[in-house]
């Protein structure tokens, strides 16, 4: 490798503002004193040519098996991968960020066979999550992925995180190397190098959103599970999520009551008693035998009186046109009164677009919780399905998605999304129909739940009000312990 040419490229990247210094918010949710934007290189053919030549030479030098195919992580790495493909005479694959909704509906474009090997090309790596997203989709099609080539490694955990998933990461530049090149050339001062080095040491990001300090894994205020609801409200993109986080913080309740009763009078009487202790009331209106408009009005009145939101657990799962009618019309007219609804991601983004299409009143804040995992034994929600659901949620987070229904602490990374977890009961176990239950403390601290759903633990209690208060207090204490604040 020509070190002179490598240093010249580093300086050229700085000259064209492909990286800069300041205070920047990163995709992983933390601030950084240095920011890379390699998207600008497409406007500089000389940089593109030099970079692709050096990467091709680097791949040959380190003797990485280029395999049968190359695949650039969308989207910045695509032009880089294209040039390497031409210079190395290797076919390329294109991974879409979302599957097509027409034609072949492919996620991976290009000609390949299961068992073929594919080399990943990426521009900048922080935690390595974008590489792993691409790896998972390629492996889902039967491709073999063992190595990734990146332009810049920010040295914040990407190497370790990708290696844990069986992918070796090789970088042309490290952040430290680039800093030294700029320092030697008199472009930056020593204090800048020291400042960035201190930042790198204190912001080692793990794949589960935790951080490493002095070689020890910790969950701190920079990860979703370590942040307070007040802090996360500022990061939430969905308007109703912001409001719900503020409600939770002010009411000190993460309790969602599943009011699975068949009589409207029973539900209203129950809510009058337990309303002060819950943040969400979850309904299944299709089991209410005497459902009426007056019932809905009474429910809304109680929600306002006791300060909680209403979630209709409809679990929409059809095409956009159908769910739009189910949401706004029919006997229940759900969109007119439910703040939140649950939705299956199986139909793709079209289901969210269909639901949103009927919301014409800008004063009505509405949101959805996407189902990524279920708490019943033998459910068919695979890891790949859960990951695909999170992809939809991330892409539409600011639009309509308030949160995720799941059972895993490491699935929801964004602090702006809420994790809702069902199956909470003081007495752990499994019922006769395969529904699994975990304790309040386990669900909050181990499973990472932000909002916890309790049904029969309250409904079947001798004193429902006392039971609701007990669940609220135990859940809130577990949350306070999780984020390290006093109750």
UniProtKB/TrEMBL annotation:
Keywords: Decarboxylase, Glycosyltransferase, Lyase, Multifunctional enzyme, Pyrimidine biosynthesis, Transferase. PROSITE patterns: OMPDECASE. This is Uridine 5'-monophosphate synthase. GO terms for biological process: pyrimidine nucleobase biosynthetic process; pyrimidine nucleotide biosynthetic process. Pathway: Pyrimidine metabolism; UMP biosynthesis via de novo pathway; UMP from orotate: step 2/2; Pyrimidine metabolism; UMP biosynthesis via de novo pathway; UMP from orotate: step 1/2. Residues 254-471 form the Orotidine 5'-phosphate decarboxylase domain. Its EC number is 2.4.2.10, 4.1.1.23. Transmembrane segments: none annotated. It comes from the Eukaryota. In the N-terminal section; belongs to the purine/pyrimidine phosphoribosyltransferase family. The active site is at 313 (for ompdecase activity), 315 (for ompdecase activity), 318 (for ompdecase activity). The keyword Transmembrane helix does not apply.
């Amino acid at each position: 490798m020509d070190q002179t040419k490598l240093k010249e490229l580093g300086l050229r990247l700085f000259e064209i503002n492909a990286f800069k210094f300041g205070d920047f918010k990163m995709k992983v949710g933390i601030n950084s004193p240095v920011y890379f934007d390699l998207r600008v290189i497409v406007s500089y053919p000389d940089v593109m040519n030099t970079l692709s030549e050096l990467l091709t030479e680097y791949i040959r030098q380190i003797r990485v098996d280029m395999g049968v195919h190359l695949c650039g992580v969308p989207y910045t790495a695509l032009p880089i991968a294209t040039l390497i493909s031409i210079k190395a005479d290797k076919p390329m694959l294109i991974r879409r960020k979302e599957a097509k909704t027409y034609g072949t509906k492919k996620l991976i474009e290009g000609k390949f066979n299961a068992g073929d090997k594919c080399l990943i090309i990426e521009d900048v790596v922080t935690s390595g999550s974008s590489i792993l997203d691409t790896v998972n989709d390629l492996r889902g099609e039967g491709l073999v992925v063992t190595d990734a080539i990146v332009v810049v490694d920010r040295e914040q955990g990407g190497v370790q995180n990708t290696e844990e998933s069986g992918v070796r990461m090789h970088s042309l530049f490290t952040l430290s190397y680039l800093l030294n090149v700029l320092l030697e050339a008199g472009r930056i001062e020593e204090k800048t190098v020291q400042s960035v080095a201190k930042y790198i040491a204190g912001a080692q990001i793990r794949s589960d959103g935790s951080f490493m300090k002095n070689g020890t894994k910790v969950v701190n205020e920079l990860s979703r599970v370590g942040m307070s609801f007040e802090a996360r409200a500022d990061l939430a993109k969905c308007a109703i999520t912001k409001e719900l986080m503020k409600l939770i913080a002010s009411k000190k309740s993460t309790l969602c009551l599943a009011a699975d009763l068949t009589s409207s009078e029973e539900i209203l009487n129950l809510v009058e008693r337990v309303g002060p202790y819950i943040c969400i009331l979850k309904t299944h209106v299709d089991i209410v035998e005497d459902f009426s408009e007056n019932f809905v009005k009474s429910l809304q009145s109680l929600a306002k009186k006791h300060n909680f939101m209403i979630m209709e657990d409809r679990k929409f799962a059809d095409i956009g046109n159908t769910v739009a009618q189910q949401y706004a019309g029919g006997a229940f007219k759900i969109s007119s009164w439910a703040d939140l609804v649950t939705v299956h991601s199986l139909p793709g983004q079209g289901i969210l677009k269909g639901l949103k299409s009927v919301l014409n009143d800008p004063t009505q804040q509405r949101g959805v919780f996407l189902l990524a995992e279920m708490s019943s034994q033998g459910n068919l929600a695979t890891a790949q399905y859960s990951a695909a659901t999170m992809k939809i949620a991330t892409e539409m987070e600011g639009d309509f998605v308030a949160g995720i229904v799941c059972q895993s602490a490491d699935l929801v990374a964004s602090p702006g999304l809420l994790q809702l977890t069902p199956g909470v009961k003081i007495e752990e176990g499994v019922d006769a129909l395969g529904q699994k239950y975990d304790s309040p403390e386990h669900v909050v601290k181990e499973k990472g739940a932000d909002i916890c759903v309790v049904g029969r633990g309250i409904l079947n209690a001798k004193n429902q009000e006392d039971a609701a208060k007990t669940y609220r207090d135990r859940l809130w204490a577990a949350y306070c312990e999780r984020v390290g604040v006093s109750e």
